[in-house]
Amino acid sequence: TVKAIRGALLDIQQVVTNPEQLEDSLRYVSDGLLIIDQGKVAWHGRWEDGKDMLPEGLRICDYRGKLVVPGFVDTHIHYPQMEIIGAYGEQLLEWLNTYVFPTEQKYGNKRYASEMSGLFVNELLKNGTTTAMVFCSVHPESVDALFEECDRRNMRMIAGKVMMDRNAPDALLDTPESSYQDSRRLLKKWHKRNRLLYAITPRFAPTSSPEQLEKAMALREEFPDAYVQTHLSENLNEIEWVKSLYPEHDCYLDVYNHYRLTGERSVYAHCVHLTDQEWKVMEETGSSVAFCPTSNMYLGSGLFNYRRAADNGVRVGMATDVGAGTSFNMFETLNEAYKVVQLQKEKLPAIEGFYRATLGGAHSLYLDDCIGNFNVGKEADFVVLDPVATQVQQLRWDNSKALDEKLFVLMTLGDDRNIYRTYVDGRLVYSSTR
Ligand code: GUN
Ligand code: FE
């Protein structure tokens, strides 16, 4: 079970508290060697320094001319929404009613959910994403289907059953008690089984009664090492709605905070319209943000204040938010993120984008001790990139000198054509036919 990978290796050496430190943390080995043993990184360094350690007769995976990077981390995505990407013409609340809720009803059928889970995981791997934090539907069957699929490939994945007991079609509603029992059973079945992790998943405040959020709180107290994922402050009408449903709370985040759903391993998607007071709570509680640029542009939600979050030490990960997001691909997501930051007259350097998509994303999911870079002992999830998959990329690549310039070419022009191979747990799980 020993594997040797030869190629240019690029990763971020360590978690940074200030993005300015990233320059010194970028690690590039132009002719590198990665030795994988039992799904973990056993050695990382220069080919010259490591080649004599390799066992006699071991076949080398030779990726010279390619770029080997850690697997991408998508910190927020909905697998039942894969089939409604690009649904036309609505903003959040209308989009949920018109497209999302009718579609998610199909995921009570286990066979259908299994079939879609297979397509979904294939699509992640085809885009170099090896870890994701995933919303299933309200149906327990949808959760079993996804976890079974991920377990087969031994992926590091986080997912959970949507808890939702109001403001949606009857067929999609659970109750405080049933959501508690179902989530608890799924959590006990899947959390920490192999590399899988469970997230307590109240959809968002408008679709949960106070009684249901109390049940979510009870689960979190009973299983303090489980995750929490939900949506926060995405759209102005949504925020007004939360005010009317929870008038006794001063702000949207206060609803979740009151039910002790903030804190480590709590991941909030969007956070587009947070107030200063809410940002303070994010900072103080160690809660994480999933930045969803393609989704926020697509639904016209607004511009995420990336620099406010990143420069104040809030954990930020990149997220596609498919199906409101329009791409599974992390390069395309970074490309849009760059534009969102530009529109606020700020910058998103390529190294920082690369960090958010790998080690920074892992950090936001409290997984930086096991994934995100090539440190010895890390789990061997990685991607072999073809940095020049198109003619235009080739021209831009040849015209770029510094490494961060080349990375920026990938970030602006890259897509799934640049994903040459994907490895999970040290094993090849996707190979491009190009
Ligand atoms: N808010 C509540 N549910 C959803 C969802 O499915 N997608 C997005 N983008 N926002 C939400
Ligand atoms: Fe979402």
Automatic annotation (TrEMBL):
GO terms for molecular function: guanine deaminase activity; zinc ion binding. One of its GO terms (biological process) is guanine catabolic process. Its cofactor is Zn(2+). Binds 1 zinc ion per subunit. Its EC number is 3.5.4.3. The keyword Metal-binding applies. It comes from the Bacteria. Pathway: Purine metabolism; guanine degradation; xanthine from guanine: step 1/1. Keywords: Hydrolase, Metal-binding, Zinc. One of its GO terms (cellular component) is cytosol. It catalyses: guanine + H2O + H(+) = xanthine + NH4(+). Residues 67-429 form the Amidohydrolase-related domain. CDD domains: GDEase. It is an enzyme of class 3 (hydrolase). The keyword Zinc applies. Catalyzes the hydrolytic deamination of guanine, producing xanthine and ammonia. Belongs to the metallo-dependent hydrolases superfamily. ATZ/TRZ family. This is Guanine deaminase. It comes from Endozoicomonas elysicola.
